[in-house]
Amino acid sequence: MFYEPVWSYGDYQLVRRPDTTNLYIAWYDTTKSRYRRQSTGTPDPDEARQRLIEYAQRREKPSIARLDEVSVLELLVSYVERVDQGKWRWTAEKSALGHFMAFFERESITLVSDLTLDVQERYVKWRRQQLIKSGFRGSNGSIGRELTVLRAALRDAWKRRRLESPPYIMSLPKPPPRERFLTQDEFRRLIDACTQEHLYRFVMLAIHTLQRPIVTCPHSLYRFLCYSQCASQPHQRAAERSGAGLW
User: Over the stretch 100-154, which tens digit does the pLDDT of each residue have?
Assistant: First the structure.
């Protein structure tokens, strides 16, 4: 059937066919090597042009940026906001974001292309010094989780076609397993040292659930609200301090 060209917009044409008053959108499909057409559903030229523009814009492929065109912090913030949506507690992603923001400012890191292997090694060294200064061992576990967040953010941007390819992000060897655990006597001394009510309940929750503090925190608030009358029950508190229910 013969189609008469009426108007062009990029790779798309507005065409008219003799058996109907409605105007059609026509374009060449390179994947199937043939022309395709779709009705605009209107004979009005102005309205048909507008529908053609809207259709062409919807089909446009998003531009994929190069590594030297994208802000690494923008991608990281976007990823953390998306995965942490609806989570009020402080998560591993939010913690990693805070550390990377401080390091990027310190090292003047702005673009994804700045994340060279040398920069990553400097980050590992800087974070380890920070952890040791704060009284921690500075093991590979914490730093490795932060690098995992960065790697996930960059891969997420690549999958969403915001980045042409995810750069290499180094991995760290897993830390050795825990060598020892607290004894019953050490547990009791830890509990006795918790003189503040909220700290006592937090530690009790951590002992009973065996979860990391960052995971225990929301549960401690829940238990605090549910058992707010514990402090007014000396016999129950004494039983808890004696170790009942722990062993």
Answer: 999 999 999 999 999 999 999 999 999 999 999 988 888 898 899 999 999 999 9
Q: How far apart are CA 112 and CA 69, in angstroms?
A: 8
Spatial contact of 69 and 165, defined as CB atoms under 8 Å apart: no
Classify strands 12-16 and 4-9 as parallel, antiparallel or unpaired: antiparallel
Alpha-carbon distance 113 to 119, whole Å?
11
Q: Which helix (H) or strand (E) covers residue 71, if one does?
A: none
Residue 88 has a pLDDT of 62
pTM above 0.70, yes or no: no
The DSSP secondary-structure symbol of 163 reads S
Q: Which alpha helices (DSSP H) does the chain contain, by range? A: 45-59, 72-83, 92-107, 117-133, 140-159, 184-192, 197-209, 213-226, 234-241
Q: How is residue 118 written in tokens?
A: 């040398």
Contact yes or no for 188/136 (Cβ under 8 A): no
Mapped onto helix, strand or coil, the DSSP state of residue 171 is: coil
- Closest residue by Cα to residue 83 from 170, 152, 166, 159: 152
Cα–Cα distance, 245 to 239 (Å, whole number)? 9
Q: How far apart are CA 246 and CA 43, in angstroms?
A: 79
Q: How many residues does the chain have?
A: 247
pLDDT per residue over 156-192, tens digit each?
A: 999 888 888 899 999 999 877 766 677 888 888 888 8
Residue-level pLDDT at 74: 92
